[in-house]
């Protein structure tokens, strides 16, 4: 009996350290979980990005469904919307799907009219978000996606004035300041709604600072607009009546860009930089100016996107209008934009994630 009691005491003595160690391990694990910070709530910018990506994916799926009965009419739009959904997704996440895998084939076919209206509204949503997005890279991405979506919608919009409608849809409307710190701006008021104010060095008339990057991007835009103005002036007397009418309208629009850009710089007491000493003409320009005019407008679109990524809120809205207008004029002259069809004006990455195809979404 004594030996049995001793053996039990020894066994209990051996269990006590093991029990203590187990309790310590469990306690430390629980404490680690308790002390580990909870996942941060998504920021307002991330929430907006996820919403725009999910909406793009939903529209892509609807376009694929429509395309099954439309003989390929919506295939290009569906591909662009899918590419944009992937590009807009937050890094490390996949774009949300509107319907579970395998159910797309049984989903009801949407009506083309309401679908196109929704797609046009999604362009407005991208532009509105670009106007207020605090991340400059995302602002440029949204502007590029809006432009690519607008271009894809135009051939299938059934006569809807998508370009004009979108160009006038930005809120708030840009208000180009009058010069409060004169640095060479003409006395005539710039186009847009004037906002008088006494500019102070480095700030706009609205009291918002203009960064060095924004000032440099504005000057680059002005140089690009200056060359486009010169090309239009040379082309005008050499064109037929229809070409002269188009060039005169475009020249006025580009002239307004120059005037407004100078007003933004002057209101921030920023020098406008040196004008180009001269411009060269392509060899075939005098006989066929259209391609060079389109290329100049495409270059102006790219400069506008650069400004979107650099400008403060007020000037950014104006830059978005520049992007839309110059892109429309480039297309009228038959010129394409750099980058991809889905994201014009942005560099094409060397490798992109695969975009879901209609067969993989059914």
UniProtKB/TrEMBL annotation:
Region (Disordered): 93-113, 184-212, 338-362
Source domain of life: Bacteria
Biased composition (Pro residues): 346-362
InterPro entries in UniProt: DUF4439, Ferritin-like, Ferritin-like_SF
TM segment ranges: none
Ranges for domain DUF4439: 227-347
Protein name from the UniProt record: DUF4439 domain-containing protein
Species name: Arthrobacter horti
Taxonomic placement: Bacteria, Bacillati, Actinomycetota, Actinomycetes, Micrococcales
